[in-house]
């Protein structure tokens, strides 16, 4: 594919870290990104239903893409389903969509995550997925996490896509566990525990979507990309230090207990024989 070749050149130039880029390279970079976005928008328009919204100024009608709130409910249009059944179309379509996840353009990767699961779900319903394709889909999502993991919003979308891909393909393609075993610090015991939580239908304790995504994130945490500032960050570990001495506050006792004898406070407010004459007259 032409776009794949161009993106490989961009990635190669980025890895070389050459600040003195020629003007033609900058133009090629911009054109490749723009062409990728437009081609991806074309695929979204072709494979998904559209609805017409009437404008208030009577200038014309505006067509927008139907995007369900729940990605699991998103389905392809009739034309999109026909494209996935055509052997001359679906290989390049699927390869392009999943390659977008690891290309160094966050807007393209973010837009591609919604298209990936809808095409995967339809392709799985048509029973056209092989073992190699299942591994390719799952690896592409993990590669996208490694490339764009430092962006929180995109990381969340890719984690959800990875969870959905694993949950859909794992019962039929157990080879996906071999991909997870290649992740550092991901052991068979952790994968088995995750499978019990995710795939056991008779499990009494049901997990919601957030808990499933958090469990999946723990499995692939070591391959999630980080920014340069977080990449070499030294984690702080606090030791169990002994408690410091504390100054005990003395309890203030009531004044009566401190001075048990009569202090004469009441005598200050009672009249006596030594009071002035005008006070005694008023009291009489």
Automatic annotation (TrEMBL):
Residues covered by the Exportin-5 C-terminal domain:
2-233
GO biological process terms on file: protein export from nucleus; RNA export from nucleus
> Per its UniProt record, what InterPro entries does this chain match?
ARM-like, Exportin-5_C, XPO1/5
Q: Which Gene Ontology MF annotations are present?
A: nuclear export signal receptor activity; RNA binding
Designated name of the protein: XPO5
Query: Which GO cellular component terms are attached?
Result: cytoplasm; nucleus; RNA nuclear export complex
Say which domain of life the source belongs to.
Answer: Eukaryota
